[in-house]
Amino acid sequence: MKNKCLIILFTFLIMTAAVFSVSAERELSGDKLDFIPTGEGYSFTAVGNVELIYDDITLRSVGRGSYDQTTGDIHFEDEVELFYLDYEAYSDLLYGNIEQEVFHLRENPEILGPDSHLKGDKIDVYRAEQKIEVRENTYLDYQNLQAYSEKIDYYMDREIIILEGNVEGTRNGQKFSAEKVTVDLVEEKVNMEGQATVVFPQEEKSDGS
């Protein structure tokens, strides 16, 4: 019986190694790792200092992370870090599908691009659409522009950021408001639409001395 259990264990280890060696850059680690069979693969749950490397994507969590090999579904909790293309993202909850490269960030999410910093209550990343959606209490920090709005759409392929809904912020120290603001990261241009207003700072008057 003991030998039979050892054979089963070795067989599983060989199968697991084969699965993760399909690509040299795919592995899951943690202080504790559990697994259950699901269809053609396994569902893995790691606890403590979790790290999932999947091609050019790296996910980390100090708490818990799960990965379903059959579906590609992922679920990470507690100080989650996502490193993806030229972006870094942080939240306390992340779920989605790593094969489809769809990520939903919740609970204090934020994402940093090469020249931008985005915040909101909800951040969703869609690789197929080359799009990042930020919803509810959104905030953008881009070079000399800082703004709040109801929603933000970041088109990664075109490097365009669009803020919509009660947009308010500052640019070069000047306050502005509009219904829609478009930021072109390539041309470094900003376009404002819908009751757009810019408030110029008053010049200090000389006292004549």
CATH topology of one domain: lipopolysaccharide transport protein A fold
Quaternary structure of the protein: single chain
Rg is 23 Å
Q: Which spans of ≥5 residues are poorly predicted at pLDDT below 50?
A: 2-24
Q: Any idea what the CATH superfamily of one domain is called? A: Lipopolysaccharide (LPS) transport protein A like domain
Percentage of β-strand residues: over 45%
Commentary on this structure:
The protein has 209 residues and is mostly beta strands. The protein has a domain at 122-202: Lipopolysaccharide (LPS) transport protein A like domain (lipopolysaccharide transport protein A fold, Sandwich). The protein has one helix spanning 2-20; strands at residues 26-29, 32-38, 41-47, 50-54, 57-61, 64-68, 73-84, 87-97, 102-106, 110-112, 116-119, 122-126, 131-142, 145-155, 160-171, 174-184, 189-193, 197-199. The protein is elongated and about 75 Å long. Residues 2-24 have low confidence and may be disordered.
